[in-house]
Amino acid sequence: SRVPSPLDAMPYDSAITVFSPDGHLFQVEYAMEAVRKGTLAVGVRGSDIVVLGVERKAVPKLQDARTIRKIQLLDDHIAVAFAGLTADARILINRARTECQSHRLTLEDEASVEYITRYIGGVQQKYTQSGGVRPFGLSTLIAGFSPEGKPQLFHTDPSGTYSQWKANATGRNSKSVREWLEKHYEDFSGEEAIKFTLKALLEVVEPGSKNIEIGVIRSPTSGLEMLSAETIDALVKNIEDEKAELDKAKKEKARAAAEAAAAAATLSAPEMRD
Q: What is the mean pLDDT of residues 257-269?
């Protein structure tokens, strides 16, 4: 019989650089699980706008809410939203900001959205391949405009993979929100793209500006605009009113159909007796 090997009982999830026999890097998968437990972030690319929306955690009464930002600038024309560990995000965002400034200093030109996304993905990947470190426990949505003036939205995950999207979600309940986005996405423009992002968030987040934060980039030179609490509350009310009207119309249509069916049944009853 075969002599048992020490490798038989090796804990493949204890070392970042060791593959399991079926090809998994468990620490990377655990980092992705940390992302799934993080607050929801949604990104939508419109025809002339990019919108980032995030779920806000409840802030203690004595805490300054401005110190917890889930949507931040990387450069004048690039913003990022994240899901996962906030402390990890701070380090990664600071590195990306330094790279943006280095790019300006060296090439006398601003970094493109794809360039900085590739850089962030590279940093995240490096931390999956070195001993003595652990992966970054966050996923990012990076938004901005290309040098040609087209809106762009990219996504990175803890493995270092990056990809471009029309709309995407990451964090808590991201799978169901992504399915909703796939079902309802159109190439929206302006305010419609903002409302669409808000509707996606409201699928799983309690309505109200206390629970939602939205950032918008409208043009290559406009920078990041954070929507005020009053604007978000007004949009939420508008969406809820539209939903109520739609529900009312559906009920009236169903009632009319039921009445028509009952009338048809009443008319056919005497004929059956005859």
A: 77
